[in-house]
Design brief:
Distance between the termini: 9 Å
CATH topology: Alpha-Beta Plaits
Helix content: 10-25%
Strand order of the largest sheet: 1-3-2-8-5-7-6-4
Order of helices and strands: EHEEHHEEEEHEH
Number of domains: 1
Number of strands: 8
Shape: globular
Radius of gyration: 16 Å
CATH architecture: 2-Layer Sandwich
CATH class: Alpha Beta
């Protein structure tokens, strides 16, 4: 499975409520019919974290191959989507990379997830995690220089908070997000859980 991750920064004068509503209710409906798209997940920070990190949302897109992603990007629908993106996100402050997932603990994806650009795998309390993976990026995130995203799925929001705190919490210099993942389009389970 070919996967892309996008760290999104909202336009400054748009409220967090409007940004998340527009991203979820309008943008996702434009994106879903895109040719070749096999999966799409929005990882939205919980409201308590709005404005505490560099990014306001994280999107994941899944295709069968790089060629099919390029075909989707070149489509007319993609041009419509990019026009809409200018209404709610800052392109220059948004970061996109290809992902190679390395699974450390293979378990279910749940309703609570912690994503960290600066956290260390060794600091994850494994007893709180249902699934742990390292998302290796094809390029470095510009602000932290990280080429990895630590992804920890937990069975409850309380466990996710504890994982976030173990990875550095909201201390300055730590880019760790407690998010609610929402699958807008879900790839077949056997592909996601490989």
């Amino acid at each position: 499975m070919h996967q892309r991750i996008v760290f999104i920064t909202k336009i400054a004068d748009v409220s967090y409520e409007k940004f998340h509503l527009d991203w979820n209710m309008v943008h996702s409906h434009l994106l879903v019919p895109t040719v070749n798209l096999r999966g799409y997940r929005q990882d939205r920070p919980v409201p308590a974290q709005w404005g505490r990190g560099r990014y306001d949302g994280i999107a994941e897109l899944f295709y069968d191959s790089a060629e099919l992603e390029q075909e989707a990007f070149d489509s007319h629908q993609s041009k419509v989507i990019r026009e809409h993106e200018h209404s709610f996100m800052v392109e220059e402050l948004t970061f996109s990379a290809l992902v190679d997932e390395q699974v450390e603990l293979d378990g279910p994806r749940t309703a609570s997830r912690v994503m960290s650009l600066t956290g260390r795998l060794a600091d994850v309390p494994r007893e709180l995690a249902s699934r742990i993976s390292v998302l290796n990026l094809d390029q470095a995130e510009p602000l932290t220089g990280s080429r990895q995203v630590l992804s920890v799925w937990t069975t409850s929001e309380m466990d996710a908070i504890a994982v976030k705190d173990a990875l550095g919490g909201e201390a300055e210099g730590h880019d760790t997000y407690l998010v609610t993942p929402v699958n807008i389009v879900t790839p077949p389970a056997e592909r996601l859980n490989r």
